[in-house]
Design a protein that fits this description.
Elements: H1 2-11, H2 13-18, H3 22-41, H4 45-68
Helix pairs in contact: 3-4
Length: 72
């Protein structure tokens, strides 16, 4: 994930400099995707419920910041 982001950053440097919000989106949703991977692999119910709650709230909150951020 990080390596792919760095390759994309150096390949399209002007694009990322003009759109600085893209890199945080890539990192946060990459972390959320890794959490979903752990959620699928886990066999403990309490761990699954924890990941489900935290990832759901995290994704919704970050999406709200992306949408409402420019308005504020």
């Amino acid at each position: 994930m990080v390596v792919a982001s760095l390759i994309a950053f150096f390949a399209a440097h002007d694009f990322f400099r003009a759109n600085a919000i893209i890199l945080p989106i890539v990192y946060v949703y990459g972390i959320l995707a890794f959490g979903m991977y752990l959620l699928i692999r886990s066999e403990k119910k309490w761990l699954k419920s924890f990941f489900r709650a935290s990832l759901g709230l995290g994704a919704r909150a970050y999406t709200a910041v992306i949408i409402l951020g420019p308005i504020w």
